[in-house]
């Protein structure tokens, strides 16, 4: 018998190129859509950060810079012989801790300033609305006051250096410009922004900025400039203090989270006492009067 050879089983594979082409064409827009969704999500998240941040966040840097200045004052050698006893206790604070705190304050202030500058570019209408708000406009002084405090507590620059003087001018000019704008509205009643209608405890931030600038000018030896800025701040502080003392205007309109700003009532005269001490070089009667006023207001709060 002849061997019967059966052909092997063969499987025919048919590839439809039209289906593959269609699938690849439909997959590409889906990938592009996913990428665009991710990019939009990232943009919306960054935009949400810029819309949420406001000038009130600079109170964080303001407190950190104040603490850095306090630690520097603790570390300085006292001139009064009676303070030599306390100087040994103050030396318990290590120098590295002060430098670390100053760097933390610098990093915080740089971060907040960078985010707020971005907000000025991308959300200028919100910044403009904040400028015309009776509370938000006062916090516009906070970044410049923070920079002045950071400059005053700097472990790198001496008050008699040219860089110190240049930075002082850079940080003081915006404070003076805001003074002219805000105080001008109070005098001329432009836009019906009467002081009795818009005054609130945060308005004292405008005065503190002038007092810090005056204290630094006195430490640099610029007595006339220090007296000029000090008199400007104190003149408006007297009017503002009487307005707030009579009505406490704005306390009921402040958010609950801003109730700690009431402590600015004793912060302003205490800083005025330090500024006048830097100008005169002695803790005279005016400095003592301002100190006891701040002590009384602290006890009242």
Automatic annotation (TrEMBL):
Domain of life: Eukaryota
Keyword Endoplasmic reticulum: no
Record-linked Pfam families: SLAC1
Localization, UniProt: Cell membrane; Endomembrane system
GO cellular component: endomembrane system; plasma membrane
Coiled coil: none
Keywords of the record: Cell membrane, Ion transport, Membrane, Transmembrane, Transmembrane helix, Transport
Spans traversing the lipid bilayer: 96-118, 130-150, 162-182, 194-218, 224-245, 257-279
Topology of the protein relative to the lipid bilayer: Multi-pass membrane protein
GO BP terms in the entry: intracellular monoatomic ion homeostasis
InterPro entries: SLAC/SLAH (IPR030183), SLAC1/Mae1/Ssu1/TehA (IPR004695), Voltage-dep_anion_channel_sf (IPR038665)
Gene Ontology molecular function terms on file: voltage-gated monoatomic anion channel activity
Presence of keyword Ion transport: yes
Record family assignment: Belongs to the SLAC1 S-type anion channel family.
Functional note: Slow, weak voltage-dependent S-type anion efflux channel involved in maintenance of anion homeostasis.
Subunit annotation: Homotrimer.
Name of this chain's protein: Uncharacterized protein
Record organism: Papaver nudicaule
